[in-house]
């Protein structure tokens, strides 16, 4: 079964959902504000961290190149601030992409795990309670390179190699995260941790990656689970170089009807600091992301969620679809609602990878469901 048939079924399903969400019985979105106003609001929320004048030469170094059976893995270092070196894996498919045949790139921020980039790139944690079956859910960088994408898996601040204490990493890495937080906020006391830092670091990595001749800089995506899902939802609104994104099990989107249906209420919200938190600011973030495609994946029984907030999101999806319609991209805010808890299981992975392939390779490029299943089952 090819993606032509798969997407026919998918589009039919999403079209039915779209028809329900945007029907006449539901609220309509107000006329969208200029994106610049929304971006200014988001940047103000992130506080006074590093600015354009603080951008440094990434000085990318290839620490090691490893050739594996079906892809190459480059271990990289690069500067994100004058005193902050980041590390990442760049996963490259075989045959190697070239200047004449560049490939789409997908950013793969990791979930909460001390191993950071390793967790999504095919490594087994050194000491962890996660089972082999559980680990398969999180290796989306490895999956994507095996499906023909270039995958970039960075360490977030306080994870992987980006630690400031001489102690082993752990599952949740609280000591390392707290130590990095203390160091960074001493330098930027009016900034927002950790997500403001993560957005900055992803953008600085992008500055470097778009200069690589084998990267198709017109087709860049992002995918993340849990902490990585938060990173997707916070980064996409601020960087239009990212064409499409998948956010799975990130922070709760607290839908605020008034900011979508009344432009005056939206402006009041933007100017009222006392009502802002990240769950509320996702409203502004999604507005700033439109019309670029986003796939939002959530579980109704995620243990980190509450029933009232979940019902609140359902109503929100209807209005968001109308907002996307006004921006000229009706149907490009896609959703997968499931009952598998805080997870990234095979059905969600298959949809995510096929969805990214559609938006980054184009509808004419075929990807078989059998190939996706084979990649997932071979791990």
TrEMBL record:
Domain Peptidase S9 prolyl oligopeptidase catalytic: 197-306
UniProt keyword list: Hydrolase
GO molecular-function terms, A-Z: serine-type peptidase activity
One Pfam family hit: Peptidase_S9
Protein name: Putative dienelactone hydrolase
Gene Ontology BP term (one): proteolysis
Hydrolase listed as a keyword: yes
């Amino acid at each position: 079964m090819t993606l032509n048939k798969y997407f026919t079924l998918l589009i039919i399903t999403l079209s039915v959902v779209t028809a329900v969400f945007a029907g006449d019985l539901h609220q309509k979105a107000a006329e969208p504000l200029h994106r610049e106003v929304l971006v200014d609001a988001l940047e103000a929320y992130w506080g006074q961290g590093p600015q354009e004048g603080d951008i440094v030469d990434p000085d990318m170094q290839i620490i090691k190149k490893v050739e594996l059976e079906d892809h190459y893995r480059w271990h990289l270092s690069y500067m994100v601030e004058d005193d902050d070196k980041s590390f990442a894996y760049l996963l490259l498919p075989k045959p190697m992409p070239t200047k004449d045949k560049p490939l789409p790139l997908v950013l793969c921020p990791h979930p909460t795990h001390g191993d950071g980039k390793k967790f999504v790139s095919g490594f087994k944690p050194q000491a962890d309670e996660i089972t082999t079956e559980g680990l398969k859910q999180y290796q989306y960088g490895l999956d994507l390179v095996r499906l023909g994408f270039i995958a970039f898996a960075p360490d977030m601040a306080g994870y992987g190699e980006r630690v400031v204490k001489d102690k082993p990493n752990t599952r949740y890495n609280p000591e390392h995260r707290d130590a990095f937080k203390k160091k960074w906020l001493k330098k930027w006391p009016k900034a927002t941790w950790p997500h403001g830092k993560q957005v900055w670091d992803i953008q600085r990595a992008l500055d470097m990656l778009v200069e690589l001749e084998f990267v198709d800089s017109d087709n860049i995506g992002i995918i993340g689970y849990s902490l990585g899902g938060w990173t997707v939802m916070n980064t996409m609104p601020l960087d239009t170089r990212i064409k499409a994104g998948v956010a799975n099990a990130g922070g709760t989107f607290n839908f605020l009807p008034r900011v979508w249906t009344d432009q005056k209420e939206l402006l009041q919200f933007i100017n009222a600091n006392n009502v802002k938190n990240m769950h509320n600011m996702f409203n502004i973030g999604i507005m700033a992301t439109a019309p670029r495609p986003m796939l939002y994946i959530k579980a109704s029984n995620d243990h980190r969620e509450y029933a009232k907030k979940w019902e609140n999101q359902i109503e929100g999806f209807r209005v968001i679809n109308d907002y996307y319609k006004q921006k000229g991209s009706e149907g490009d805010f896609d959703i997968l609602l499931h009952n598998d808890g805080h997870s990234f299981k095979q059905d969600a992975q298959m949809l995510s990878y096929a969805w990214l392939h559609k938006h980054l390779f184009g509808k004419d490029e075929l990807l078989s469901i059998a190939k996706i299943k084979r990649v997932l089952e071979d791990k």
